[in-house]
Amino acid sequence: MAVALSRKLGRQVKEALKTVEVFINSTQPTQDSTNWDKIRVKLNELNMNLNEIIKKLDQDIATDGRGGDDNVKTSGVIADYRMFMTRVSKNRNPSALRELATLYYSMPDSLFLGVGTPNSDLYPFESVLVNLKDGTTLEMSGERLKMVLSYLPSAGYGPLQTLFKDFQDKFHGLQDWDVKDVLVTSGAQEGTALTINMLLGLGDPLLVQNPVYPGFAEIIRPMEVDAIPVNVDGDGMIPEHLIQVLEERSNLRDKAMPKAIYINPTASNPTGTLLTDDRKKQIYRIAQQYDLIILEDDPYYFVHFRDRDPVSFLSMDTDHRVIRFDSFSKTLSAGL
At 254, is the secondary structure helix, strand, or coil? Predict the structure, then answer.
């Protein structure tokens, strides 16, 4: 929870303790007062602890530059994403035929007559062989090849999804796959296009870094997206300007508030800047404050000159508000 809400809760508890203390002090015990004295001591200790907590929270708020309780929009873990989705997206359901295909693949001895699935025994491919420059040979054949050449569940080939989940866990910390998932797309740009269509309707607002990746600008142009620019410098997007932009937007009665922010954090296109870890933390806190989805478009994550990989937004995502776009186009093959 945001620190302002925690501070407010702490003060409410403190007021409740004070009420109890007044009651105890005004009540005369009919028996030995030893227990009452112990209660008074414990109440004093609780009050002292609460004072220290509230003091620390006040310092945190001052550091964050968030202002008082009434100025902060707090949010926690996102439980329902429908509030971020367009009406069209809300009306979508999983493809019944694809769901049947998933069921079919779980029963290998079954005969499936739905979705026009061809007989995989009639495919003209015997095997696929790839020789790498380091001498490694990769081969796919048999039932595995038949599987990947057939209609697959919408999210992609199951073992490949598992591999990508392990990849995310390795580089961005263990993820909660009970509430998260991986979708295999034809590159990160298709992923961003699908996400924009899920989140934004015609003319909806979106926070974008300025300048923005030209390819992304082409994605949002046909939708007449109200792109709200946030300035960058040598260290990437400027958190102070992001706050300024959001505050100014909130004062415009005829303008809707954005529900997402698009960021290209590593080797940002076209500036080449690397968003610092500290700024990422600040931007994530701002996203919590204004309840924003972070679109982390990071195809250049492994293309940098640092001694270690950058800290990603996904790795600090306690609220499940980050949608991350990865790509092998910069490390394996652009057309893979």
Answer: coil
The amino acid present at 255, given as its one-letter code, is K
Span 51-100, pLDDT tens digits: 666 555 544 544 443 333 333 334 578 878 899 999 999 999 877 777 77
**DSSP 8-state secondary structure symbol assigned to residue 135:** S
71 within 8 A of 243, measured Cβ to Cβ: no
The sign one gets for the Cα dihedral 276, 279, 281, 283 is negative
User: Residue 106 is encoded by which pair of tokens?
Assistant: 């779980």
Residue 269, Cα to own-chain centre: how many angstroms?
21
> Is it true that the peptide bond before 108 is cis, omega within 30 degrees of 0?
no
Token representation of residue 22: 């007044």
Cα distance between residue 247 and residue 244, in whole Å: 5
Q: CA 23 → CA 7, 19, 32, 38, 301, distances in Å?
A: 25, 6, 17, 15, 60
Q: How far apart are CA 66 and CA 271, in angstroms?
A: 29
Distance (Å) of CA 264 to CA 29, 38, 297: 67, 58, 5
Q: Are 219 and 196 in contact (CB under 8 A)?
A: yes
pLDDT tens for each residue of 217-231: 999 999 999 999 999
As a whole number of angstroms, the longest Cα–Cα distance in the chain is: 94
CA atoms within 13 A of residue 276's CA, in its CB half-sphere: 9
